Amino acid sequence: MTALNRLDIKQLITLKALLREKNLSKVAAQLGLTQQAVSDQLRKLRSTFNDRLFIRHGNGVQSTPFAEQLAGKLDLAIHALEQLLAPVVFDPATTAATFTISCTDFEQLSIIPQFLQRVRQQAPLLRISIRNLVPDTLHQDLLSGSIDLAMTTPSLAPTTLPSQVLYTETYQCVASKHNRAIKPQMRVAEIAKIPQVVVSPARGDFTGAINAWFEDQGHRRSVIYSFPTFSAALAALSTNDTCGFIPSRLLPDQRLQSIELEAAAPQFDVIAVWHSRSSQDPLHQWIRQQLSAVI
């Protein structure tokens, strides 16, 4: 066992008090210990440092030259330990950290601009990296720390990680303003017959997020185009005879017309998800607060 392994913080505090008071009884009273407990700690200190440290002198003790040499180092060591235990004070105005957020272009278009405006005012030195969401590697990306936080839907988020609902979004059925098959009000059965566009980040699926909603209405829809981004889907919708369901925060769009359905449009939660090791991190908590504040 090394000397460091034999040393504990209580012994260092006792040593500092003995160097100051030169009296075991006074040190015992100050530390709330018995004089025997102080004597036991001194015995251990002598063994650790291989020096007597203190010798009897009158009604007290006198420090050895070696003990006197320890005084300065001891003050630094105890101060360092006190700083180690001190609460972390987070100041947005001075932080120069880098924070990485992963999300689809939906959040990049609808939330991130206002979020960055707010952050820029309060944390001008903070660097933020926005990355495209990759659902299949999301858990590993959060685990490795390559991203700090993701904004997504519960269906794409790892269920084992902490999350926070930011808000509930509503889909809106839209089509090109030039699509003559579209009426301002339509039934779900009519919409199901129109070729449709879906957004499937990274996977290229043709099912889309609201297939179950159509099935609940007793209809199957025909999806012919799948895009990785909402911006691409919007552009495509504006130029052909398809329709699609777009988050309402991306609307209105001058290229498109909205369609009112007899059934309530489906909704979905937008959540923030992160690794549990970051739950108590002051910067991480502050970022989540700013996201909630702009929604």
Secondary-structure map:
Layout: H1 3-6, H2 9-21, H3 24-31, H4 35-49, E1 54-57, E2 60-63, H5 65-85, E3 98-103, H6 105-110, H7 112-122, E4 127-132, H8 138-144, E5 149-152, E6 163-176, E7 185-186, H9 188-192, E8 196-199, H10 211-216, E9 223-227, H11 230-237, E10 243-247, E11 256-261, E12 267-273, H12 282-293
Helix pairs in contact: 2-3, 2-4, 2-5, 3-4, 7-12
Describe the overall structure:
- By secondary structure, the chain is an alpha/beta fold.
- The chain has helices at residues 3-6, 9-21, 24-31, 35-49, 65-85, 105-110, 112-122, 138-144, 188-192, 211-216, 230-237, 282-293, and strands spanning 54-57, 60-63, 98-103, 127-132, 149-152, 163-176, 185-186, 196-199, 223-227, 243-247, 256-261, 267-273.
- The protein folds into three domains: 3-85, Winged helix-like DNA-binding domain superfamily/Winged helix DNA-binding domain (Arc Repressor Mutant, subunit A, Orthogonal Bundle), CATH 1.10.10; 98-161 and 274-293, Periplasmic binding protein-like II (D-Maltodextrin-Binding Protein, domain 2, 3-Layer(aba) Sandwich), CATH 3.40.190.10; 167-269, 3-Layer(aba) Sandwich (D-Maltodextrin-Binding Protein, domain 2), CATH 3.40.190.290.
- It is built from twelve helices and twelve strands.
- The strands form two sheets. Strands 3, 4, 5, 6, 7, 8, 9, 10, 11 and 12 form a ten-stranded mixed beta sheet that branches. A two-stranded antiparallel ribbon has the order 1-2.
- Helix 7 (112-122) packs across helix 12 (282-293).
- It is rod-shaped, with a radius of gyration of 32 Å.
- 25% of the residues are buried.
- It holds the Pfam family LysR_substrate.
- GO terms for molecular function: DNA binding; DNA-binding transcription factor activity.
- InterPro entries: LysR-type_TF, LysR_HTH_N, LysR_subst-bd, WH-like_DNA-bd_sf, WH_DNA-bd_sf.
- This is LysR family transcriptional regulator.
